[in-house]
Design a protein that fits this description.
This protein is mainly α. It has four helices and two strands, in the order βαβααα.
C-alpha cells in the first residue's frame, strides 16, 4: 500500500512557538530556508494533541497520565489565571 499525504497527519503536543514554526514547515516548507524542507510544501494536515479531533481518540487513562497537566497548563495560561 502506498501512503500519500491524503492519509497522513501531523500531531503536535508542544507549545505555541514550536507549534507555529513546525506546522508552517510541514505545511508550506521550511520558513528559514535552511533545512531539507526549504521550499518543499508538503501540505500536511496539522493538529495539536488536545484538539477534539485527536483528543477524543486517546484512551482516558493515557490522557490522564500523559496529557492532563499539559491541557491544564495551556488553559491556565490562556485565561491568565494562576493555580492556587
Amino acid at each position: 500500500m502506498i501512503m500519500g499525504r491524503k492519509n497522513l497527519i501531523v500531531v503536535w503536543g508542544v507549545t505555541r512557538a514550536i507549534l507555529e514554526v513546525g506546522s508552517m514547515t510541514v505545511m508550506e516548507g521550511d520558513p528559514s530556508w535552511s533545512g531539507p524542507l526549504a521550499g518543499e510544501a508538503l501540505h500536511l494536515k496539522v493538529f495539536h494533541v488536545l484538539e477534539p479531533e485527536i483528543k477524543n481518540h486517546i484512551p482516558p487513562d493515557v490522557y490522564e497520565a500523559e496529557l492532563m497537566l499539559l491541557e491544564l497548563a495551556i488553559v491556565t495560561k490562556r485565561s491568565g489565571k494562576r493555580l492556587p
